Structure formats: C-alpha cells, structure tokens
Amino acid sequence: MNYVSTRGQVEPVEFQDAVLMGLADDGGLIIPQSIPAVADRLGDWRSMSYSELAFEVIRLFASDIPPDDLRELINRTYGEAYFLNDHPSRGGVGKVAPVVRVGECFIQELWHGPTLAFKDVALQLLGNLFEYILARRGGRLNILGATSGDTGSAAIAGCRSRAGIDIFIMHPHGRVTPIQERQMTTVLDANVHNIAIDGSFDDSQRIMKTLAADLRFKRKYSLGAVNSVNWARVLAQIVYYFAGVFDVQTATGAETVRVCVPTGNFGDILAGWYAMRMGCPISQLILATNENNILARFFNTGRYSLGEVHHTLAPAMDIQVPSNFERYLYYRLGEDPAELRRVMQQFASTGSLCVEPEAEGTVDPRIVSDSADTGNILEAIRRAYEKYDYVIDPHTACGWSVAERVATPVAALAGEVRTAVADEPVLCLATAHPGKFPDAIRQATGKDIARHPAIDALAGLPTRCELLPNDEQAVRDFIIRTIG
Length: 484
Ligand SMILES: *Cc1c(COP(=O)(O)O)cnc(C)c1O
Description:
Strand content: 15-25%
Number of helices: 20
Structural class: alpha/beta
Low-confidence stretches: 409-421
Radius of gyration: 21 Å
Mean pLDDT: 93
Distance between the termini: 37 Å
Bound molecules: pyridoxal-5'-phosphate
Helix content: 40-55%
C-alpha cells in the first residue's frame, strides 16, 4: 500500500515512511492510495481474537512490514503490557475493546489501556511501530506533541522507554486537571520530557505546528508526530469498529449496526468511516459533539465555519478546527487534490467553506450528527447511573445523549431524524474511564463513585516537568539541549 497527501504534492511513500512523516510535507494529510474491500473476509474475521483481527486489518495497509514482524509487534502491543493498569488480577477484564449491554444501547469500553482512555489503542501501537522502524533503519526520533490533557499521557505511555525515541509533550501550565497532570509528570523514564508552557493549549499547539512546519528543523532533529494526524493512529482504530460490530451482531442477529462516536479531532470517527468504506457492516455513524459543534453544524447544513471555543465537561472534545476533517473532505470532494486545496485555501482566508448536499438533501446520508451541552452531559451520566447502575465519563455521555436523541424509534417516529434505520442496534463508543473525570461524575450524581485504583495510586508519587515561557525559541533550545 502506498500513501499520498490530500493536497497531492508529495510523492507516494510506503507505510513506514508515512508513519514517520506525521503531517505530509506539503501541509496536507497522509492517506492510503486505495481503500481495501474486505466484505468477503468478514466470515473468517468474526471468530478472531482482537490481536488476530488487528493483524488482518493492519497488514492490508502496512505491506512493507514482513507479516511475521507485524504479527509479533501487534501481539506485543495488545498483550499483557496493554493491561498494565487494568489487569485481570486487579479486577480488569483483559480485553482491548469489550462490548457491554446497557439498557437499549451497547457500549464498547475502549478504556482498558494503560492511561484508561481509548487513545491507548492507537498510541501503544504507534510507540511500538516507531521503535520497530528505527531499529531497522537506525537513527532516532524526537516526538513533539501538544496536549490539552488526554493525548499527552497516552502518547507518553506509548513511547516511554522505547529505544531510539525521545518524547517531548507540552501542556498548558496549570490548565490541565490534577489527574491529567499526574498521569504525565509521574512518568520518570529518561526519554520522557514533560514541558509545562506558561500559556494556553492553543499556544502549545502553535509552537508545535511552527516547529513541525520548519522543515529544516524537522529534518535536522528528526521530529515526529503523535497527534491524530498520524495515519497509524487512524489505522489502529479501524480494528475496534470491526470487533465491536461483530459483537453486537452476535448479540442481536442484526445485519447492520449504527455506531455513535463522541468526536473532537474527527480522528476516531474517521476510523469508523474507513471501516464502513471497507465493508464493515455499519449502516450509519452518529457523530456527537459537545458545544464545540463545528462538525454537527457541518453535517446538518453543509457549511463548515469557525466558532468560539467553549470549555466543557468533555475537554478532549473542546476543539475548534478538527485536524482530521481534511481527510474526510478529500473523499467528499471526489478525491480531487486541486479542489481540496482550493477549498482549504478558502477556509484559511474566510473561516468557512461549503459543500453541496447529496441525494435527499443530506450532507452525507451515512453520517448523522448532533451536539450535547452541559445539561445533556450531566443528565446522561445521571440516567446511565440511576437507571442502569453504569457510570460513563463525560465524553461517552456526549455520545450517549446524542445517540438517544437521534437514534431512538420515538425520535424517528416524530420525524426528528432523517434516518430510516431506527430499529437497528446502536453501539456507543466509551472513550475514557469515568475515574479520569471524578468532578463531573460527582456533579451529575452527587456521589463520589468514579474511582480507579491506578489513578488513586498516582497521588504522592514524585514528578518531573520543565516549566518554559510561551516562546517557540525556548522550546527549540530545550529540545536541542536535552538531546545534546
Ligand atoms: C481524544 C478524545 C476524544 C475525541 O477523539 P477524536 O479522535 O479527537 O475525535 C473523545 N473522548 C476522549 C476521552 C478523548 O480522549
């Protein structure tokens, strides 16, 4: 499989180069040159373990890694080490993506990894991929990332103690939660460098983008990316859509399933979109946003326009411009890089862009969308707990709330939705363990019920972190000084 850029100005590269490149050198996003069709393999795939299934999916896209190596790498990624904090011996389930039934819905718990968030599924694989590629090619990689909270700890957990890698993660000083901060700064491995920037998340992100766009600096210091523009992250996430849909089909006998995804950067749901295109029996994706609803507005009107950033109870989704949307747009505009460049240029200069509706007046008949506000989030957490004795985190609650609204037969009968598939089962992706967001859970239920032993264990541990001014040069200097 070869990879090209959405903007069409990068020579095709193989998988391993695509992983190292992160953002495409022409400023676009890396995409596979074709999307494999797998409908005739689903029968075999159904009975596979998670690791076997991951191998079958990923090998289609990573054809430059010898199959035995890839199998070993995947088995290692989703083996014992994955359940570091959620091990069966400590009450965990030992599964990467188990599906549970909660009332009318199915929930896929994607938070059994080392940092208790779904990002582990992809970042544990990415860390191993980086290490594998560097071991064969020689050289080192310096990962630079910016986080508003959750990505940082999962990226650090994926790269800690990996040979050939140093990881630098910037977070806004004093503006991540104490739990998020401890999940990052208590990791003392020599190759992990936490940086607290004296500024906002946007400041950190701006510094990261400036350094990554400085191609001379990027090459000289072998800068790599772990943010969700990295193709390997999308790829790793495609796997659990197949696994989850198979589980729901087994439980219900349904032909097809709808999947509801709480969305920030459009990374997770993009993986679902690829799975659907490959032939995974998903009839429709339900895209849920919080009050940062640029995507919900787009899928309801065809107009994609900048809004204000709102700080919500689901902070990992407080995103104004979802970085992976460009990949979706590329396909939506007929895989035409010139047209994509024109539209992105228009967005850059005016802050908005439009696409023509498809058949039946919808922007995309296979994606429905709505948003959840603070009241909806608290209500969903409370109801899931009181009615089903199941605690969901505020991000999962966005999805749950939207799924109930757009997907129930009642809503369909009332003509509130354009979908005709109201009797199909819904699978809601659960993206974080509630123990990461105890304040929101307390606010919703009045109880202190969101606990996880791995999080409690962080209290009082020693930490390490470098405080730097909001200044790109200071970060450059720190990187150069650290790697010597
Ligand atoms: C990152 C994150 C999301 C959003 O995922 P995207 O890939 O950015 O859409 C949702 N929930 C949690 C808990 C997250 O950490």
